[in-house]
Amino acid sequence: MEIDLALINELEDFNEDYEEVYLKIIREACKELDIQDDLELSVIFVDDKRIHEINREYRQIDRSTDVISFALEDSEQYYIEGMPREIGDIFISIDHAKMQAEEYGHSFYREMCFLFTHGLLHLLGFDHMNEEDEKVMFGRQKTILGALNITRE
Predict the structure, then answer these.
(1) What's the mean per-residue pLDDT of the chain?
(2) What pLDDT does residue 1 have?
(3) What is the pLDDT confidence band of residue 153, given thresholds at 50, 70 and 90?
(4) Of 6, 57, 116, 147, which has the maximum CB count within 10 A?
(5) Do 1 and 116 meet the contact criterion of CB atoms below 8 Å apart?
(6) Is the CB of residue 145 less than 8 Å from the CB of residue 116?
(7) For the range 123-126, what are the long-range contacts, defined as Cβ-Cβ under 8 Å and sequence gap of 24 or more?
(8) Edge-to-edge strand order for the sheet containing 3-9?
């Protein structure tokens, strides 16, 4: 299995490198979900202003948020047999991640990994629109992060 992960940083004052840990999270998620396909995805680091614009434009929600995923596999037309699965894009608000890490009393690193895992699971078809789906998705997040020892400190 090959993973093509593009990290795009739209911020001048953010220079932390998450490529290695995000690749580990992807591999762990694929192991957990029995996915053996080659995958392509992007992660874009943005500020609250930019994620607010995206949320308003694409989701008609007029506020900032922590993470937004755009899954390409919502439609069968995007998958071509024998080609890598292009699963989509994850936008993470660095401002929100900092705020939530402080609010939840854990590290910024843990919050960035949690938000990425949450976004990744959305790209892989998980959602939390009802209580049962939320339980499944959040359980998967906990299992994946726990396997990598990325827990709340």
Answers:
(1) 92
(2) 86
(3) low
(4) 116
(5) no
(6) no
(7) 123/41, 123/69, 123/71, 123/72, 123/73, 123/87, 123/88, 123/90, 124/29, 124/33, 124/35, 124/87, 125/71, 125/73
(8) 3-9, 39-46, 85-93, 67-71
> What's residue 12's pLDDT?
92
How confident is the model at residue 123, as a pLDDT?
Answer: 95
| Residue with token string 């996915």 | 35
- The Cα 83–Cα 38 span in angstroms is 8
d(CA 131, CA 141): 15
Question: Token pair 């220079």 is at which residue?
Answer: 15
Residue whose structure tokens are 């998967």? 140
23-66 pLDDT tens trace: 999 999 999 999 998 999 999 999 999 999 999 999 999 999 99
Asked whether the CA dihedral 57, 59, 43, 72 is positive or negative, the reply is negative
pLDDT at 61: 94
User: In Å, how far are 58, 65, 132, 139, 149 from 136, measured between CA atoms?
Assistant: 26, 22, 6, 5, 20
- Residue 151: name the closest of 92, 94, 106 by CA: 106
Write out the two tokens for 100.
């939530």
